[in-house]
Amino acid sequence: MPDVDFSSTVTKVVEPADCASRWGNDGLNVLSTPAILGNMEQACVDALQAHLAPGEMTVGVKVEMHHRAPTPLGAEVEYRISVRGDHPKFEVDFSVVDSAGTVVCEGKHRRAAVRVAAFVAKLEEVGRPARTA
């Protein structure tokens, strides 16, 4: 049995910052694929926090997704995640479902727990800016 095995749901309303028009599709006020990815990752970060040791965070290492249907500005969607794994590796199945029950997007995501200090040190070692928070 895995160390971690749980599901979580986050409900959000599609806002202008979530729309495809922000990503170069002028006038297309529908939920964008990049926003889905970002919101799903944030749901994972928040949900996994309780399963980490002090000084750890999770990072995304792989994603596969199928954006199936448009969702207009102002619509409510649920980000549903199901997480399984043995620390430090976590597998996530996710879906985004609108208020009518339509699966807008679904996919798989892999996350890994890392020590924040070691991760930042590695970035600084290769000359990349480190996280500020």
Which helices and strands appear, and what pairs or packs with what?
Elements: E1 4-13, H1 33-48, E2 56-67, E3 76-86, E4 89-98, E5 103-115, H2 116-125
Antiparallel strand pairs: 1-3, 2-5, 3-4, 4-5
Structural features, described:
This is Thioesterase family protein. Pfam families: FlK. It comes from Amycolatopsis samaneae. Residues 14-115 form the Fluoroacetyl-CoA-specific thioesterase-like domain. The protein has helices spanning 33-48, 116-125; strands at 4-13, 56-67, 76-86, 89-98, 103-115. The mean pLDDT is 94. It is globular. The longest helix has 16 residues, at 33-48. It has one domain (4-125): Roll (Thiol Ester Dehydrase, Chain A), CATH 3.10.129. Strand 3 (76-86) and strand 4 (89-98) form a beta hairpin. The protein has 2 helices and 5 strands; from the N terminus they run βαββββα. Helix content is 20%, strand content 42%. It is of the alpha+beta class. A 5-stranded antiparallel beta sheet has the order 1-3-4-5-2.
